[in-house]
């Protein structure tokens, strides 16, 4: 059993793999630039939860972040990038949120930061901040 700390982070990561697979991506600025892409929610660099990323950006064809609840995009109009943040932070077990209000700060890079996303997280009682360009 693990109790997450106050400071969490969401970012993309590469799971190193040099074999053959359709989903392999290459991101040159990563420490391990070739492998499978995943979106991770971490506490002190330890993954708490993650979503696999299918290569490509055509969400309607099953590409992009996997296992997103369709309501983020279809009902609420979020992009897949912002939907994955909401998905990771709104997970529930037995009807209880894993990341309850007023307990966590979440850090992002500029890929995720929008006023709308920060406002939504604030409504949920989750503090958030990150880099901007």
Written overview of the protein:
- The chain is of the alpha+beta class.
- It has one domain.
- It has helices spanning 71-74, 80-89, 115-123, and strands spanning 7-16, 24-26, 34-43, 46-54, 64-65, 92-93, 96-97, 105-108, 127-130.
- Strand 8, helix 3 and strand 9 (127-130) form a beta-alpha-beta unit.
- It starts with 6 loop residues before the first strand and ends with a strand.
- Residues 1-133 form the PiggyBac transposable element-derived protein domain.
Q: How many individual β-strands?
A: 9
Biggest sheet details: 7 strands, mixed
Low-confidence stretches: none
Q: Give the integer mean of the pLDDT values.
A: 89
Query: SSE order in H/E notation?
Result: EEEEEHHEEEHE
- From the N-terminal CA to the C-terminal CA, the straight-line distance is 38 Å
Figure out the total of helices: 3
- Rounded to the nearest angstrom, the radius of gyration is 15 Å
Outline type: globular
The structural domain count equals 1
Helix content: 10-25%
Question: What is the percentage of strand-forming residues?
Answer: 25-35%
Structural class: alpha+beta
Pfam families: DDE_Tnp_1_7 (PF13843)
Protein name: PiggyBac transposable element-derived protein domain-containing protein
Domain PiggyBac transposable element-derived protein: 1-133
């Amino acid at each position: 059993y693990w109790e997450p700390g106050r400071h969490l982070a969401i970012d993309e990561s590469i799971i190193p793999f040099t074999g053959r697979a359709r989903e392999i991506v290459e991101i040159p600025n990563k420490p391990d630039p070739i492998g499978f892409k995943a979106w991770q929610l971490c506490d002190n660099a330890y993954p708490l939860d993650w979503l696999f990323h299918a290569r490509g950006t055509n969400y309607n064809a099953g590409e992009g972040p996997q296992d997103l609840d369709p309501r983020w995009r279809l009902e609420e109009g979020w992009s897949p990038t912002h939907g994955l943040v909401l998905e990771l932070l709104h997970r529930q077990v037995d009807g209880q949120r894993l990341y309850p209000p007023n307990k966590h700060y979440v850090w992002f890079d500029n890929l995720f930061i929008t006023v709308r996303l920060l406002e939504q997280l604030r409504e949920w009682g989750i503090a958030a901040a990150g880099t901007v360009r």
